[in-house]
Design goal:
With 279 residues, the protein is α/β, with parallel strands linked by helices. It contains 9 helices and 14 strands. It is globular, with a radius of gyration of 28 Å.
């Protein structure tokens, strides 16, 4: 009887010891392996365009800081520099372009850059200070368009949609003036830097202007007599990073720091409806 009692006590002791070890191991694991904090003390540089977007990104920066990600914004005044800076490693991300523009940049320069999260869309429009409607544009009118490949094609598609020109069948989003097959009003299409078209509107009969540049040029929606459709728009802007960073945890935090209601409220305030959130 004593022997069985001792064996029973031994079993209980072993069971208690094993339970204690298990509890201790679990506690040690919980202490030693907390949920990863990928962005602790993480700092990044993000290239953006100077102007209204700086106000939006101040809010993005504040949202990111709540999650341990410090953002320093680097401003640019033209579209040619941010991708080059990102490719060279001078930036960790940029946010200024749409996919057709990036595709063309990759084709020209061999960049290793990927889209990671949409930001906004700014429908490109036909602006004029001289005419009330597209029908009023006279023969021989001079119309300015952006001269970079993706935005020029975009502008020409607006002119085609308004019946001012016709493009060669099968012409894609990178159409050029050489692809114009019909021009019934003999319009002179003047190719200018994207940032110059809006500022030159007084010297043109009309101009196709990106909405962000329209704001910078002091153009109002009342001076826009046509614009591209918003539905299924391929020209949504986005945040971009190097290919090898696209799955990094800090990138997920960067995107979520932009794609939220707090930033959307500031975006709507800054762009007054001319730009639309695209996520």
């Amino acid at each position: 009887m004593t022997k069985n009692k001792n064996l029973h006590g031994l079993h209980l002791s072993r069971r208690a010891a094993l339970a204690a070890v298990a509890v201790s191991a679990a506690a040690l694991f919980a202490f030693a392996a907390p949920a990863p904090s990928f962005a602790e003390d993480k700092s990044i540089k993000v290239g953006i365009m100077a102007g209204e977007d700086e106000d939006v990104w101040r809010v993005v920066t504040s949202e990111a800081a709540k999650n341990g990600l410090k953002i320093e914004t680097i401003t640019f005044n033209d579209y040619t520099q941010p991708n080059e800076a990102l490719e060279r490693g001078e930036l960790d991300a940029n946010a200024f372009q749409h996919q057709p523009y990036l595709d063309n940049q990759i084709k020209q320069h061999g960049y290793h850059i990927a889209r990671v999260g949409y930001t906004g869309v700014w429908p490109i429009g036909l602006y004029t200070k001289k005419y009330k409607s597209v029908a009023d544009i006279p023969e021989g009118a001079v119309i300015g368009v952006p001269n970079d490949p993706s935005n020029e094609g975009r502008a020409l598609r607006v002119l085609q949609a308004q019946g001012l020109i016709k493009l060669k069948d099968g012409t894609g989003i990178l159409a050029t003036v050489a692809d114009v097959t019909d021009n019934p009003k003999k319009i002179e299409i003047k190719e200018l830097d994207a940032g110059i078209v809006g500022r030159s509107i007084d010297d043109l009969d009309a101009g196709i202007v990106n909405t962000d540049w329209a704001l910078k040029s002091g153009l109002s929606p009342a001076e826009r007599i046509a614009q591209e459709p918003i539905a299924d728009n391929p020209y949504r802007n986005f945040i971009a990073v190097k290919d090898d960073n696209k799955d990094a945890e800090w990138v997920k935090t960067l995107v979520s720091s932009y794609q939220n209601e707090t930033v959307k409220a500031e975006f709507d305030k800054v762009y007054k409806g001319t730009g639309l959130s695209a996520y």
